[in-house]
Predict the 3D structure of the following.
Amino acid sequence: MKTTKLSSVIPSFLLTACLAFSGAIAYAGVAGNAQFVNGSVQITNAAGQTRDLKKGDAVHESDMVTTAKNGSAQIRMLDGGLIAVRPDSKLKFDSFVFSGQIDGTEKSFFSLLKGGFRAITGLIGHKNKESYRISTAETTIGVRGTDHETFVVLPGSELATTIPVGTYNKVNVGETVMISSKGTINILPNQMGFAGGIDQMPQIQPVNTNLFTIVPPPALQGTTEVTGRASTVVDNAILEQNITPGNAVQGTPTLRPIIKENASAAPTVF
């Protein structure tokens, strides 16, 4: 009898341990939590399981957040960052690693497949810029501690009838960099970068007000002048030509921030 009782206890103990272990796995890789959900928003995990996203739900790495035309969501990241997903968008949380401090293992990688989102970077984007990036079909976007917005216009979409297909990136605070196989551009506050394809050079363009809001620059005491480092444009083809002695190419003209005067309205998240 004692042997029988012992044998019946062991499977129960193992089952409990397995359940506890599987629960730990299920909640590993949490990237953040939904702090605001409006309209229809769904989340799809790595196994392809889809459910409605609710306020307070955890968002894990490898999850895809999809918003309907009437949907939007705000996700507070574990490193203190904020992700605001716009209507009719698809954003994948490719990889998120954060131990609670910056120790070199941290990662915050996203893929924007459709639509747009606004990001205010947390500790990862501020302290270890190489560990934060956004990927689209046309470009890779890096940051230097920033508040920025990215939007992808797909072929066949309603927006594609009025503006070129591609990736648009606008900076509110800080700085971003857009990279393609042809080169790199740096984007400053109230500038917008555009990438039409991975094999095309990204460009600085006037801010498209159909996509973004121009943010008033911070007031500077005793002056209205806005100062800042000029945008850097690096064309890989130009770099290759410059390597050859006697084959230097004239540099790209300096690009200045685009500022809208007397702007009074604050930017909206959605």
In short: The chain has three helices and 18 strands. The radius of gyration is 23 Å. The longest strand covers residues 107-120.
